[in-house]
User: Fold these one by one.
Assistant:
Number 1:
Amino acid sequence: MSIDWCWCYENPKEAASEINRLTALCEEQEADLEHERLRLAACGVAALCNTEQSIAEQGITADNPYYSASYRDICDAVKREMDMKSALSQAREEVAELQRQLDTAVLEKNGAKERKAHWKDRAEAAEQREKGLREAFALYGWHSSGCACNMGEGLGKKCSCGFEAALAAASEESQ
């Protein structure tokens, strides 16, 4: 862009020099903004990783120009979530096995009246486990706040983030 004169400068060369300086500054700021956009995109990708394989395929290292402290924080949080999900799954398997063993022992030992009481207790225990799972999912943010069902708070829509499916699987395992 060439400008020969500007009313705020007495010398046209000064005006042209200032315009060139400001244009270069804008271009530099646009490049910085694009770099920050890409760093933010890297954070978004990291937040979506939820398996060791996805982390290995999509993760970036500290020498990458789009790596940031925020990216590392997100990766750490995702790793904690994966560890908690793994521990929860293992605990569910252990509880299910113990429950099967207990059921076998109880059914062999007790008659119909005791079995009825046993199944009632088991149903109450399942309800308590579901309540605990709901609290754990809410505490650790596993249920998306943007989910259609909004954790059952009156919207009456089907769960879209998988939380309800996880509860249903846990309930089926306990039965």
Number 2:
Amino acid sequence: MNRLDELALRKQLLQARSALYRLRIRRELDAIRDRLSWTRAAVTAVSTLPVGSAMLGLALYGVARSRLARLARLAAPVLLLARLARVAIRRTGTRSAG
């Protein structure tokens, strides 16, 4: 086997290894994305909050199309993020204190 053949085989090996690493990274990113999904975050937030606020959220999504409904649709994700932040702060506070 001459030097050019060795270089060609080495190039193929490096390309295959690179493709394998890209696939592994993509798989790990998909797994992280699944763990950090908004649906899961919303379920966690609703399960930690009182039932009344969850019912209010469902009622806001069910409102007919109007200016109030558009405002509620825009405000709902903001409120969800605020509640998630509050829950996260409480959980980290209890872990560091305990």
Number 3:
Amino acid sequence: MMMFSKVVTILLLLSVIMFSSTIASNNNSNSTTTIVSKRGKIKKNGEYKYFYDSSVPNVCETVYILAVGTAMTVNDYNELGSGISKGNRIVALVSDSTPGNPIKLESGPWIRYYNTIVTQIQDIIPACVNTLDPIIIFGGHSCSVQGIVNALPKLVPQPNGLIFLSPFLITNTMKINPSIPTLNWGFEKTTCLVFVNYAAKAAYGISSPDHRVLYRIDNDDNTIAHCIFTDNGCTFVCPKRKEGEWVIPAVSKSIQIFADGIVDGGKLTKTQYELDVVKDGKALLYVNEESP
């Protein structure tokens, strides 16, 4: 199974190499937004790019460490990072444990990155200087989630929650601490070689039925694909089309609900997560003991 995962990673990588990643500036603030963003490095352990809304009090209540997907960089999730943070007490910390190396599925680099950056949050994020113990949510996109799930037993402190965006490659032999709530976004059909039975559905399956959420995007016509969570998709092989423009706003809203729920004690109810995209039939929703 590990060999299969690496083969899929290489195929995704080859498609991404044919396309230049978005080049973004270190500071995305402009006259019409209060989002503060900056890119930085952790010596020997990776890169990060944080996003927070400077108009929000107590903005560092929650920090979401968002791991980049295969061959992606911290500059490829600007829309999502801004959307998560806008108007909310959440810092989105887009993270890369192996910058320059397209492979993100190994657990070792994520253990080192996480265990380092959680001790430096107050030093690297100005909004967090006076927040000594923020809620920590960990997770990511694509194959980085494989490394994160395998890294979980060695993460200190344990994250308060997990958020996975089209994760891969997840199997039913993997373990998630049943005390940790999870939020998962995936698809109804296989997309970009990310097979549905080893993706968000599987991550939901190994999560505790006491506090888990799964959204499955209706991609029957294949116009919305695995890389919809990035700014520009992953080339023509896994593109980002206008039909999926609703996805990042919906994901951002669900993350805000999830973070607020953890602050309030971690209880999850289906009513909380019934977004308009669920009512409109664009995504299916499963919560706690429900099965896809």
